[in-house]
Amino acid sequence: MRNGAAIVLVMLGLVLSGSAPVAAEIEGIQLQVDGLSCPFCALGLDKRLKQRAGLEGIQVHLKQGVTEAALPRGQGLDVGKVRLAVQEAGFTLRGIKLTVIGTISQNGDHMTVTSRHDGTTFLLFDAEHQDTEVGPALSQALRQQLEHAGQTKRLVKLRGLVHEHVGLPAGLMVEAIEELFE
Amino acid sequence: MTWRRWLIAGLAVFMLPASASGVAINSDVGLTPFKGQWIYRSQLRYTKKADDPSPQDRKFDVVTMPQTLVYGLTEKASVILTIPFLSKELDSTTDGIRTSRGDAGLGDLLLLGKYRLYAKDYPTAASRFSIVAGTDLPTGQSGDADARGKLPRDLQLGSGSADPLVGGAYTWQSLDDEWDASLTYQFNTTANKFEFGDVLTYTVAYQRRVWPFTLPERGLYAQWNVVLEANGQWEQQAQDHSRRIDNTGGHLLFLSPGVQVATKYFVAETSIQLPVLQNLNGNQIEPDFVLVASVRATF
Fold this sequence. Notes:
Structural class of chain B: mainly beta
CATH class of chain B: Mainly Beta
Number of strands of chain B: 19
Strand order of the largest sheet of chain B: 1-2-3-5-6-9-10-13-14-17-18-19
Low-confidence stretches of chain B: 1-6, 11-22
Largest sheet of chain B: 12 strands, antiparallel, barrel
CATH topology of chain B: Porin
Oligomer: heterodimer
Number of strands of chain A: 8
């Protein structure tokens, strides 16, 4: 499995390079929560996300089935804890959408974005290329854009959907990218 | 002679809804609290029975105030404790003399465990099935007396026996409406050589959001629902010294419209239960109605 090998190389690269992230933020966290269907049920989500996953600023939007949350400064996002928190509230986490501001690194065959404050690292995938079993994780255009950002050490702002990998950093399916000039 | 039993049987199922995160008023639901959640429910139920076919012209008023505490051990398992406070008054005519007797105090505690066996989540909707099991405990007085001697069984506050109960409930809940169905069976045991008949209760409930008519795009909101429930109970005949008692047992079915407001922190509701089927054995007082008011809060 080509993509699996690529991910192993990424991990190896991360370990060997000890790549120190320059700067990153995670913001605009949106949890897509299934099963949330009454106002009286929302308190559990609020409490568990705070207690279990350390999130704050919880806002439940019942009609959309979406919960917005924020991370305290310096705290990373533990996707597993978020999933567990939603489960303990009695619901199912369908997905997490967020925005990462950080720097890009090339690790083996893969590209990552990493957080300065907490070391949260995401493997980057292309939302247009979700079938990575047979194709590249990133399209040529996105790869070039990320490589450029990586070489210039510029901050980038990535928005996308998070997915989990067992024993690996979470993946970020990039939907939008923006270079920040600062 | 089974008003007290009807009350206890009814109480058992009426206490169950407090375990729910979601809400039917007089029916159990398949929903369970989240891990670490506390729910407190306080109910006031007024039962009026005045339809007496006998010359005694009995009128029976019962006020019950079940106080229920629910705790979510996990998102699947919860424990439920209900402490009922009761007040009963029976007016009847014997030999041309109208008399009134009654009692008030703590009834039988009900301790239940609930476990969610099935859960399927959809965007803004949920499907759940849970089982429940437990027992009531003979904490209510079963030998109280007044100036005329020992009170009849119907006026006693407790059954004198521990009576196990099992059941199950299913819920489909969406932002617009909710369906609930439940079934419970209570195995009544013997105390002082008297055994009340086992009780089967069944309910089907539907509730519909009526306000806000159009949901806001963002945030939470207070939600008003109308509720319609069918609450049935069937009871075996009681036995005294292993002999069946004629004027006991039967089948009752209530239709229960209600209204409810649900917010993030509390639910308030009221309902009236109207008998639509009364097939009671022998000469028993038939219920006229049951009025219900309830508040539940979560923390």
